[in-house]
Specification:
Layout lengths: L10 H6 L3 H17 L4 E5 L2 E5 L3 E7 L3 E5 L1 H7 L8 E3 L2 E5 L6 H19 L15 H10 L6 H14 L3 E6 L2 E6 L2 E6 L7 E5 L20 E5 L2 H6 L1 H19 L1
Antiparallel strand pairs: 1-2, 2-3, 3-4, 4-6, 5-6, 7-8, 8-9, 9-10, 10-11
Helix pairs in contact: 2-4, 3-4, 6-8
């Protein structure tokens, strides 16, 4: 079904060569990706539909019995548990035609990829001066939190309090479309997409890889992940989360000396 001899000019062109029922699935996954990453641009790369944002974000394609979804190795690894029912390999997920597309999961993966791509890009251009009054970091955070799932309001508030209480030099702001923290202008940790059953923290300062803790997950060369499944889990792991942030602050200080 994925005819590699065909050279599509755009995603519409690619979708048009497939059977009607497959076209419907391709259009659905396309729409889901676009909603999760509204700033991404559509393209054709490797002869298949692609969304780009600071580089390739995700790809998808149709095959004989499944849709292929390609969020990169980190996208697959981060959502390993949620993807346990699907066939996966490094950077690849197969969604069978005889099963409903997991649209919420696809959306969460895309939002995660947006954070990672934007973090890697570290936009170098300075913002242009504006005559408009700039909204403060505190106001931006407050506005963002109003849109958060009420179910996780107390857990997120507890996590924020723990992080900010470690050192007065830790500052909070909105970056990469989420609540983020930095120390001495060094980005440290950002809230990832909030899933229905957990809250995600992405520690993305390179020094985090030297900190050992059962709370830190993932074997990436430049970041680690922390999941909390309830407010009780946040309270239980408060001492360990505090230790992790303290060690990271100390590591950043030593690196900048």
């Amino acid at each position: 079904m994925n005819n590699m001899k065909f050279q599509p000019k755009n995603i519409d062109d690619y979708i048009s060569i497939h059977p009607k029922e497959v076209q419907k699935l391709l259009q659905t996954i396309r729409t889901t990706i676009a909603k999760a990453a509204p700033d991404a641009e559509e393209a054709i790369s490797y002869q298949i539909p692609t969304f780009k944002l600071k580089g390739n974000l995700v790809h998808f394609a149709a095959f004989k019995n499944h849709l292929g979804f390609y969020p990169g190795a980190d996208g697959v690894a981060t959502f390993k548990k949620e993807l346990s029912k699907y066939e996966t390999s490094k950077g690849t997920i197969q969604f069978p035609f005889d099963q409903p597309l997991p649209l919420k999961l696809i959306s969460d993966i895309v939002k995660y990829r947006v954070i990672i791509n934007q973090e890697k890009a570290k936009a170098k251009s300075k913002p242009k001066p504006s005559s408009k009054k700039k909204t403060s970091d505190a106001d931006q955070v407050e506005q963002y939190l109003k849109t958060s799932d009420p179910k996780w309001k107390e857990a997120i508030a507890a996590i924020r309090k723990i992080i900010k209480s470690v050192d007065t030099g830790i500052a909070e702001r909105i970056k990469w479309n989420a609540t983020s923290y930095h120390f001495l202008q060094q980005d440290m940790v950002t809230f990832g997409p909030v899933k229905s059953d957990k809250v995600l923290l992405v520690f993305h300062h390179p020094c985090i890889v030297k900190i050992k803790s059962d709370l830190l997950e993932g074997d990436y060369k430049d970041r680690r992940l922390v999941y909390f499944t309830s407010l009780g889990a946040v309270k239980k792991n408060k001492p360990e989360l505090t230790r992790i942030v303290k060690e990271l602050v100390k590591a950043i200080e030593n690196k900048l000396k």
